[in-house]
UniProtKB/TrEMBL annotation:
Belongs to the NKAIN family. The gene is Nkain3. The chain crosses the membrane at residues 34-55, 62-86, 147-168. InterPro entries: Na/K-Atpase_Interacting (IPR008516). GO terms for biological process: regulation of sodium ion transport. Its main location: membrane. It is a multi-pass membrane protein. It comes from the Eukaryota. This is Sodium/potassium-transporting ATPase subunit beta-1-interacting protein. Keywords: Cell membrane, Membrane, Signal, Transmembrane, Transmembrane helix.
Amino acid sequence: MGRCTGRCSLICLCALQLLSAFERQIFDFLGFQWAPILGNFLHIIVVILGLFGTIQYRPRYIMVYTVWTALWVTWNVFIICFYLEVGGLSKDTDLMTFNISVHRSWWREHGPGCVRRVLPPSAHGMMDDYTYVSVTGCSLSFQYMEVIHSAVQILLSLVGFVFACYVISISMEEEDTFDFIGGLDTHSYYQDHIELKPVKPVEISNAIDFEMRLLDLT
C-alpha cells in the first residue's frame, strides 16, 4: 500500500515537473536565454527517465533522478542569486545568453502590466540596441518573475527528492524480504531431503524381514 502511494505520488509529481519545465522552456526560448534552455533540456530528460523508472520499477533510474534533483536545486538557487544580484552577480550581464547576444529575460518587456514602447531611432545610436525599448507600468519586475519560476522548481524538486528516496527505500526493503524468504525456503527444502534419505532403506529392510517371517511360517 505504501509503495503504491509513493509511486503514484512520484508519477504525479514528475508529470507536474514536466509541465512546469516545458512552460519555462518556452519563455526562455522567447528570451534567447541559452544557459537556462540547456538546463531545462537536461531537466526534462532526467524527469522523463525518473518517470519511466517509477512506472517500470527501475530503482537505478530513480536514483539518477534523485541525484539530478539536488543539482537542479543548486542551479535554480544560482539563478535566484543572479537575478537578485547576490554576491556580486548582475542581472544586466550576458551570462544567461553565453555572451552571444544582448537579449534579456522575456519577462522584462512582457511582464504583468508592462507597457512596451519603442523609442525613436534619432534619440539613440543603433537601431538594434536594447535601449530603444522602453518598458513602463510593470506590476512585477522581471527579476521577480524569474525568481518565482526558480522557486517553484526548487519546491517541486525538493518534494520529488523526498518521494524518490521513499520509493527507493521501499523497493530495497521488498527486495531484501524476497531474498530472505527465498533463501529460507531453499534451506528448508534441502533439510527435508537430507532427513528423508535415511528413512527409505529402513522401511525397505522392515518389509523384507516381514516377508521372510511369512515364508518361515508357511
